[in-house]
């Protein structure tokens, strides 16, 4: 099937898979899983050059299908082409390029020191593939959050069974078509379908499971993995707070927070979830927030529905959930300071800022995953820190201040998966930083070397000489053995 034909079908009302690309069903799992087990044994011996060749093919195929990816994401939830480039294509290519540049170094065994009690021995860490891996991708960044872990798994030498989200079916189809061009099903297989497909996949004894999604579903994945003692990487979410200190540049803060909050219509796991602001700064911040938001989308408050750069909520169910937060917060005393417009026919929710939000409102309890920014005021930094610490540990923490002392004060007294000072979200861009959560916001991390390690087993290898001091401690436990043990304990341990 040509690209032109795929382009026509990717925006059509029904999902059409090219004739040469098989659509896998749950019954295929029992056939493909053992085939990938066999292939995984072969890939253990693959070289850096062979893996890099595959990564280069993956990169070339992404560029080949760039238009199709854009059209699929617009069809799924009206995500604009430029936002697709910025938040889906660019970071995927960056991850692949980082692996291509560094893979030879990552794959080398790491020599480590050996204690004097093992004098004459050598020690090293060898990175070996985990084997057959399951990647379950989410709907909010359905392309990037499928490709980034896939690239890491390929770099580490694994086979992969990939389950895209059923909420973004057009993107899932493009992923299947793309990856079928590069890989056979015994190396990378894409399974479209609903939760029943995910359930069937989770019954298999995978060597590793990589899941991106909500905390409640993450618990289900972890429970399923436990039955087979499968290792997991869980990239979850939570309520990522933004603390604005008294001395912060409010205009700069508003611009950066509004960008991060309304990117992808707020459907971002590391979006600023709520704002902690000094009481005296609320009116000024709301004014700057309004100014920045209307500048971003070149629209006044009533014009966002017509703007093609502002995407929609993924489906009616999530629209109902997010819009209900506004109603609940207002009923409990909050005020809509900006926005608040909704349209259920289009799953549209305008950029919205709420003030006077009580802590017991549902918008302050659930992860929002929508274009709503609740503002909570505080009298002291310790009060703001107390609010953060009263909730599960977040995936990200954002701090705006002109004083490094203030940033350090907050960082030392809180915990989060990652943190950014004087900006939001951008820690994801640095592949030298591990990306992941802590406790409720996730287990494990990836990006760059950390992604390679997530899909690798760090195998310890010790090689000893024929003559070893340990032999002197073999039984029978004579007085001489006691002397050797005492001497070693005193001087070498």
Which features would summarize this protein structure in a list?
single chain; 493 residues; alpha/beta; Aldehyde Dehydrogenase, Chain A, domain 1; Aldehyde Dehydrogenase, Chain A, domain 2; 2 domains; 43% helix; disordered N terminus; Aldehyde dehydrogenase; Ald_DH_C; oxidoreductase; NAD; Aldehyde_DH_NAD(P)
Description:
The protein has 493 residues and is an alpha/beta fold. It has two domains: 3-236 and 447-457, Aldehyde Dehydrogenase, Chain A, domain 1 (3-Layer(aba) Sandwich); 241-432, Aldehyde Dehydrogenase, Chain A, domain 2. The protein contains 16 helices and 20 strands. The chain has helices at residues 3-10, 26-43, 48-64, 66-77, 81-107, 144-156, 169-182, 195-202, 215-227, 250-262, 282-296, 316-331, 381-389, 404-412, 448-454, 479-491; strands at residues 110-112, 122-129, 132-136, 159-163, 188-190, 208-212, 231-235, 241-244, 274-278, 335-338, 342-343, 348-349, 352-355, 372-378, 396-400, 418-421, 435-436, 442-443, 445-446, 456-463. It has a seven-stranded mixed β-sheet with strand order 10-13-14-9-8-15-16, with helices on both faces. A six-stranded mixed β-sheet has the order 5-4-3-6-7-18, with helices on both faces. Strands 1-2-20 form a three-stranded antiparallel β-sheet. Helix 7 (169-182) links the parallel strand 4 and strand 5. Helix 1 (3-10) runs parallel beside helix 4 (66-77), helix 3 (48-64) packs antiparallel against helix 5 (81-107) and helix 5 (81-107) packs parallel to helix 6. Residues 1-17 have low confidence and may be disordered.
